[in-house]
Every structure is written in C-alpha cells, then in structure tokens.
Amino acid sequence: MPRYAAVIFDMDDTLISRTGAFQRYLERFYMEHPALYDRPRETALQMMADWDCGGETDRTVYFSNVKAEWPGIIESAEKLTNQFWAQLPEEVEPYPGSIDVLEQLNQVGVPWGILTNGPSKMQRRKTVVAELDSLAPFILIPSEFGDQKPSPAVFQKAVEETGSFASETLFVGDNPVTDIRGAQSITMPTAWMKAGRAGWAGGSPEPDHVVDHIRELVEFLI
After folding, report:
1. CATH no. for residue 100?
2. Is the dihedral of CA 165, 193, 9, 62 positive or negative?
3. Residue 43 and residue 152 in one domain
4. What is the pLDDT of residues 43-55, one digit of tens each?
5. Residue 1: inside a domain, yes or no?
6. Which of 91, 107, 134 is the last residue of a domain?
7. Last residue in a domain, options 91, 113, 138
8. What is the pTM of this model?
C-alpha cells in the first residue's frame, strides 16, 4: 500500500461541489429573468449548464451566448458576469464528510493544502462560505501571482508549502488536464476525483488512484 507524507487538494468539484453551486445559481438566474420562460425550465437550465463546460467557458463569452439566445435579457454581458462572480460563491457547499476528513488530517498532523484556479476574490469567498479558510494550513490561488494550473511552477510552489517532496505528496483533483497532468509534470502521485463520471478517459499515464470522495484516501495518509 502506498503511503504519502502530504496531500494537496484542488477545491472545485473536489472538496466542494462547484457543479452543485452552479446549478443552484442557474435556478436562481432562471427565476430572476422572465425572458427565459419561453423555454421549459429544464430545457433552459440544461442549455445554460452545457454552455458552462464545467467552468471553462470565459464568463463574458458565456453571458454573450445567453443574451444571444434570450434577447429579452436587458443586462449587459459585463454586468451579468460581475453578478455571477459575486453570487456563485454564496451557493457553494463542501461535499458531505469532507470537513471531517480535513479535520482528521489536522488532528494527526498530515501536511495539506488547497491549490485552486480561478479569480482570487471569488475563490477566497468560496473558502469562507465552505468553512475551509479556517481549516486549511495554506490556500494557493495562482491567479494572485499571475499563473495557473497546469503550470509546473504552481504545483512546485504548493509542494514547498507542505515541506515535503513532490514524489511523496499526493495531488487530488477532478480535472484530467489542469489537475492530474499538471501534478504529474513534477512527478507527484495523483488521485482523480471521478465525481460521478464513468471512469478515467484521460489517456496515459493514468492517475494512481480514482476515487469518488476524499475519505477513500485516508488509508494512504494516516
């Protein structure tokens, strides 16, 4: 059984459900914009969820698409984008049981931290709403120093925060490119958060572990 000296987590769809938060945001958006009522609720919500591409779509482009589909929405794409950045963090929730695992890591002294892409203000607010800010020994947001995953430099910086070596520090994330490939680029072992998907389809090399919840990794850390 492998043993790891430290662990670094992605945040969205790893410790918290960004997917769930975005769905709750969309439901509120639908209720607040009657222009969308020309489509059945589920149809409109699914269209807007598909355009999101798991958060990878540029927000201004995203809301330009929304306005093109529903011209009756009077707010500008820029205003909708600013509202999105403010509203989405308020919808986040940690995955059930995740806080218990993180508290356990703290209790036994396992070095760990969070490495997450995204705008600084929004990501920092998410950590507060999800009550991660008071738990995490460190939270790195690469946009604060002009970088982002999968840059090897940001993974190396996170490893240095743990005080361990890359080869003995497990990285846990849901994105095959920004998380798994990024961590592998500096020889970190990896765990892919399946998050309900059928299975790994990111090619070779595969992650060292495929899990549905971080509790499955406790045996490798404690």
Report:
1. 3.40.50.1000
2. positive
3. no
4. 999 999 999 998 8
5. no
6. 91
7. 91
8. 0.91
In a domain, 123, yes or no: yes
DSSP string, the chain: ----SEEEE--BTTTB-HHHHHHHHHHHHHHH-GGGGGS-HHHHHHHHHHHHGGGTS-HHHHHHHHHHH-TT--S-HHHHHHHHHHHGGGG--BPTTHHHHHHHHHHHT--EEEE--S-HHHHHHHHHHTT-TTT-S-EE-GGGGT--TT-HHHHHHHHHHHTS-GGGEEEEES-IIIIIIHHHTTT--EEEE-TT-SS--S-SSPPSEEESSGGGGHHHH-
**pLDDT tens, position by position, 10-26:** 999 999 999 999 999 99
What is residue 1's predicted lDDT score, i.e. its pLDDT? 73
Distance in angstroms (rounded) separating the CA atoms of residues 85 and 90: 10
Domain that holds residue 164: 6-17+93-221
